[in-house]
Design a protein that fits this description.
The chain is mainly beta. Strands 20-1-2-3-4-34 form a six-stranded mixed β-sheet, with no helix packed on it. A six-stranded antiparallel β-sheet has the order 23-33-24-29-30-31, with no helix packed on it. Strands 13, 14, 15, 16 and 17 form a five-stranded antiparallel β-sheet that branches. It binds beta-D-fructofuranose. Beta-D-fructofuranose binds next to strand 1, strand 5, strand 9, strand 13 and strand 18.
Length: 494
């Protein structure tokens, strides 16, 4: 009976997608090379995994409206992380334990099967009827069709836990599985650790880490992985530094014997206004990150076209000798490059604009500033400007102050603001900038992404000009590259 109801909800969702996916023509904001929902609402990336030789990107999905509704898991697959195939919706909120939503979680391959561990969320329970959030399992042999475990939930919260108890991230270490969950206590975010021999019976290990008091009231979507012998904990705290939503990472070490994580350093991952709930996975020997390229409470002008939310372009992570995470677009971005310009030794002065011939809605820009040879105060990159510059998004790199400012006051539709982010200290005399622009997004990655700012912009289609200028003196770019970008391939297997 329950199984039948489940299949009906999934079929209904897929039918809705098939009937409506092409109904939004002339949509100026539909992205050319970023993952986005076929229709409806997308938030967090879920269950990033490689299974049977392809990459799977599941996501928080409400197919029926471009707003936050009861969550299903949508499913994209890819063989190069640029081209994407929409597959059937994998799970729907059709059980008593997930009736208000199948919230975020993980996918993990084990013994030829693919397992999903996700949060079942049920609204409207009174205090006596806790839990509101529990952890549930689903499994699949082909990575496409999933069935929920008949004895779900597999993890209940302890009686003393706050009801916020979600977003399991599972990994394997030696012969056991480990799972971390976002939780809070007394107004402070924390991460709980569980372990299991088989993904079904879970043992509570303890609190892996709690906020030091300045890191928000709730930690959502924790992720954990190791790079170069260091353990890294990724968190999406709510309520940190007067920001409703932030993303941070901590480099340190997890003691599997005690279950405690000891952070050595904490950094912002991406300071952008539209970046949240990132997750990572191992892809062809690399650690790759994808984040939700939108955020709760941001204006979403795409709603008018029947969809909302997208994912960042996949980023490869590495660790510097100083313990900073670098984030660089995966190399297969080269597959969609079209026309390119390349210059060495460009001196920016007297209104010379090396980007004056670039006309595009999607492009990639890279440059290295020679700091010793540059007397100028600011490098200003104009993005998606119109002819009279009454529209444009401006990225200003303040060389002395070591700040990056994103000015969205003339960007078109959507939120209007100026956002300032400190550039993390780097050694050497050059500062590298990389910018990915799509029809409705700008990802700024400074010094290999050790500083990152991701925002959505909603300019007119006709605003397709770009500019580069120096303010307060000359700036020497030791190298500069710019490519217009084409569209990725998008297919449907629903
Ligand atoms: C983060 C989040 C998660 C939750 C999901 C619900 O954006 O709030 O904590 O699982 O979204 O869609």
């Amino acid at each position: 009976m329950a199984l039948k109801a489940g299949i009906i909800m999934l079929q209904k969702a897929d039918l809705h997608i098939l009937e409506n996916k092409f109904s939004y023509e002339n949509d100026p904001f539909r992205l050319h090379y970023h993952p986005m929902p076929p229709i409806g609402w997308m938030n967090d990336p879920n269950g990033l995994v490689c299974f049977n030789g392809i990459a799977h990107l599941f996501f928080q999905f409400y197919p029926y409206e471009a707003c936050n509704g009861s969550k299903h898991w949508g499913h994209l697959t890819s063989s190069n992380l640029v081209d994407w195939c929409y597959n059937k919706t994998v799970i729907a909120p059709d059980m008593p334990y997930d009736a208000s939503g199948c919230y975020s979680g993980t996918a993990i391959a084990h013994k030829d099967k693919l397992y999903l561990l996700y949060t079942g969320h049920v609204e409207g329970k009174s205090a006596g009827q806790l839990p509101v959030e529990v952890q549930c399992l689903a499994e699949s042999s082909d990575g496409i069709n999933f069935s929920k475990y008949e004895r779900n939930p597999v993890i209940y919260p302890r009686a003393e836990f706050d009801w916020n108890f979600r977003d399991p991230k599972v990994w394997r270490h030696e012969d056991r599985f480990y799972c971390i969950l976002g939780n809070c206590e007394g107004g402070h975010g924390r991460v709980l650790l569980y372990s299991s021999p088989d993904l079904i019976s879970w043992k509570y290990v303890g609190v892996m880490l709690e906020s030091d008091g300045s890191q928000g009231f709730m930690w959502e979507c924790p992720d954990f992985f190791s790079l170069d012998g260091q353990d890294i904990l990724l968190l999406s705290p709510e309520g940190m530094e007067n920001k409703r939503h932030s993303t941070i990472y901590m480099v340190g070490s997890l003691d599997y014997a005690t279950g405690r994580f000891t952070p050595k350093a904490t950094h912002t991952l991406d300071d952008g206004n539209e970046f949240y709930a990132p997750q990572t996975f191992e892809y062809k020997g690399m650690r790759v990150l994808v984040g939700w390229m939108d955020k709760w409470f941001s204006q979403m002008p795409t709603q008018e076209y029947g969809w909302a939310g997208a994912m960042t372009f996949p980023r490869v992570l590495n660790l510097t000798a100083e313990g900073l995470l670098t984030m660089e677009p995966i190399a297969s971005i080269e597959d969609i490059r079209k026309e390119g310009i390349f210059h060495r030794g460009v001196v920016l002065k007297d209104g010379f604009n090396p980007l004056s011939n670039v006309k595009a809605v999607a492009m990639e820009f890279k440059c290295s500033i020679d700091l010793d040879a540059s007397k100028g105060e600011q490098l200003v990159i104009g993005i998606r400007e119109n002819g009279d510059k009454s529209q444009g998004t401006y990225i200003k790199v303040l060389l002395k102050e070591q700040l990056v400012v994103v000015d969205k006051t003339k960007s078109g539709l959507g939120d209007s603001y100026v956002q300032t982010t400190p550039i993390k200290p780097c050694h050497g005399n050059s500062l590298d900038i990389r910018v990915l622009v799509d029809t409705s997004s700008v990802e700024v990655l400074i010094n290999k992404g050790t500083t990152a700012v991701t925002n959505r912009i909603y300019p007119d289609v006709g605003s397709n000009c770009f500019s580069l200028s120096a303010v307060g003196g000359e700036i020497l770019l030791s190298e500069m590259e710019c490519f217009t970008l084409g569209r990725n391939k998008v297919t449907y297997e629903i």
